[in-house]
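We now fix the convention by which a protein and its fold are recorded. Here is one such record, which you should read through line by line:

>
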Amino acid sequence: MQKEHGSPTDRACLSRRRFLLATGGATATTIFLAAQFSRTGIGEELLAEVAAYERKKVASLSDLKVDTPVSIFYPFDDLNSLSFIVKLGVPASGGVGPSSDIVAFSTLCTHVGGDLSKMEKTYLKEHKILGPCPLHLTTFDLRRHGMVVAGHATQSLPQVVLESDGKDVYATGILGLIYGKHDSADPPEPI
């Protein structure tokens, strides 16, 4: 006698409980193995990577006015290195100066490289945010290391690492990955 195709005795039946046990075990194993082979283990602090560059003077404290962004080129003199420095008037993460309110960031959105350099349109001084990006409307909080407030980007805006020395402000590195680069430490390619 021949069995009918598709009868309950032909197919394996996996209960919901067995499925959850199997997938839960696989997930736990994956997390355990990832922790074993990564640079940091579970519960260890993750630190953002900073690409160090030659120290470069980017501004004088006396030239910076509250909520008036100034364009700078850092770390290189190419368009992908177009950044800005701004005195926010309120303390900020990574801020320098007497009030820890001077910060600098890349002008390229981390989503698809949208141009955020038109400060008269993109810097919203009342909220201390940059954006929205003209391509997909991402905005970034300049008080909190350029973290995403809204929009499609998933990474913070690359922050220029600053230090103040007397009356001058110097750039020393980049915190985060500049859009279009595989490594922020790579110099620009010749054209």
Observations:
- The chain has two domains: 10-45, 50-175.
- The beta strands are 50-60, 70-73, 82-87, 102-106, 123-124, 129-130, 139-141, 147-150, 159-165, 168-175.
- DSSP finds two helices and ten strands in the chain.
